[in-house]
Amino acid sequence: MNTLINGLCLGGIYALIALGYTMVYGIAKMLNFAHGDIIMVGAYTIFSTLALMGHPIPAVIVAVVVCTVLGLLTERVAYRPLRGASPLAVLITAIGVSYLLQSIAQLIYGSKSQSVSMGNLGSVTLFNNVSVSISSILTLGLCLIIMVALTLFVKKTKVGCAMLAVSEDRAAAQLMGINVNGIITLTFAIGSALAAFASTFYLMQIPSVTPTLGSMPGIKAFTAAVIGGIGSIPGAMIGGILLGVIEKFALSVPVLAPYTTAIEFGLLIVILLFRPTGLLGKKRREKV
After folding, report:
1. Is 123 helix (H, G, I), strand (E, B) or coil?
2. For the chain, which has fewer Cβ within 10 Å, the N-terminal or C-terminal residue?
3. For the segment 205-239, what is each residue's pLDDT rounded down to a tens digit?
4. Sign of CA dihedral 178, 221, 225, 25
5. CATH number of the domain within which 264 lies
6. Count of domains in the chain?
7. Range of the domain at 91
């Protein structure tokens, strides 16, 4: 039971990160590989704010603001000038932004791991005398709330409908009076805010931060987005939860633990062999 709850918590974190990848790809048609390092920036912001204020709630608020502003700045400076460039140029730029953020963090904080204390919330005993930490329950609950809220925002609001329109056909959306640049900017802002929440939940589970903190969670979240169907918001959620549960169950089995990462990426290969678009991905017809 504990393994399942921990897997769902980790899956929720992967899902939040994957939502940033899948929204940016679905609307801007680009892979923002610097997204994982936004998580790292959020974690260091929490670390610094906690050192100044000593309370996690202001630290989380500041992290959300900093990550959102950083996402907007990255989109404006690095990606918008390449809006009509080749996908390879955008990909190389995203990798460059990723290494730039890691290098800046290393210059400011050093390369050593820094301990971050989010506070001990204790634990509760559920059925069958299973002890579960309150931080795990809080992580799982808030992840679900954020994902449901995002889904309702995209499906039920005017701005969300504009996002779907830009995702389907950018040129047609522009002809209908939709501000495409504004929608893409908003998408980066939402994705970066989600990264800040993901960094908060990550630190609640693993209370330490390094300049490369976002690299592996970012890669695994991207894997989750591809498994679920890149560009699909429900697919990113399902892929993240699936990957998190599999990882925790594999780690709980001593024979499988050393091969956990191989199992996760092996799952990606198997799914893509039988369903290249991912679990909930849709085939798109290319116009000639």
Report:
1. strand
2. C
3. 888 899 988 888 888 888 888 888 887 788 888 88
4. positive
5. 1.10.3470
6. 1
7. 2-109+130-274
